[in-house]
Amino acid sequence: AGIEFGLDAPYAVEYYDRLSSTNDRARELAGDGADGVAVVADEQTGSRGRLDREWVAPSGGVWLSLVIRPDAPPARAPLFTLAAAVAIVDACREAGVNAHIKWPNDVLVGGLGDETDTDTDADSEGRGGRKVAGILTEMEGEADRVSWLIPGIGVNANVDSDLLPADATSLQEVLGEPIDRRRFAATLLERFAALAGTPDRMDRILPAWRERASTIGRRVRVDTSNGPVTGTAVDVEPPGALVIETNDGTRRVHAGDCEHLRD
Ligand code: BT5
């Protein structure tokens, strides 16, 4: 059984039991001029992570891609990914799971080593946390304006965690029972629209992201295209750069895989 049609959301929703990739369907819609459409699938057979990595998407997830046409320059696109991460965390928390964000786009559960930690095993390798959701944002733009933007959101909602990579978990596994995916998706879309729906509200995204992130204040290593940058993450700056204090001074990284190191 999938998420039913008729989601109460600030976007038109297309629902599929199975798709190759919701991002690919969203790209088709974008090519046809769509704006404000959410593509949702119960299962994906060819879904993608960043850098063409495979994303495992069995039945039971919230696999969702939005087609939007924001009035924004392409340089602001990373902000939409940050807004999606905030929206995922808020929907997880409403479902009763205390998720947090690892820069730039991973949503994790556990590994904080504090009393909110429901998953102490996750810290056994010092990395902290199991991945419960990820975001792949795709965009087409001209020099000064985004043509279309597709935040592709994958949440391991009611997924059997045996089907997931070892460092991943699902909301169902954390809670011991399935969540209401329809409500989850509605909350997620409402939160995303509230933060990223109009340009005048976008200055709320970074503060909201900072509040929900576990990366700030931690020792990190980010693998950038120019090699690894290691140090203490001190802030995130517009439109989403991570500021790292290293032994050789302050570095700003715009993309890369981030690992939380043991303090
Ligand atoms: C991401 O990539 O985290 C972005 C994932 C975006 C998936 C959504 S689902 C809806 C939409 N349609 C698509 O086709 N994609 C989007 P990245 O940071 O590159 O992480 C990928 C890595 O996470 C993989 O190499 C695995 O190690 C791990 N992984 C794969 N499937 C996972 C899962 N379901 N849960 C947690 N980790 C996973």
TrEMBL record:
Example of a GO biological process term: regulation of DNA-templated transcription
Record keywords, A-Z: ATP-binding, Ligase, Nucleotide-binding
Its EC number(s): 6.3.4.15
Record carries keyword Nucleotide-binding: yes
Domain BPL/LPL catalytic intervals: 1-200
Endpoints of the signal sequence: none
Cellular-component GO terms for this entry: cytoplasm
GO function terms (MF aspect): ATP binding; biotin--[biotin carboxyl-carrier protein] ligase activity
Name of protein: Biotin/acetyl-CoA-carboxylase ligase
Natural source organism: Halorubrum lacusprofundi (strain ATCC 49239 / DSM 5036 / JCM 8891 / ACAM 34)
Residues represented out of the complete protein: 64 to 326 of 329
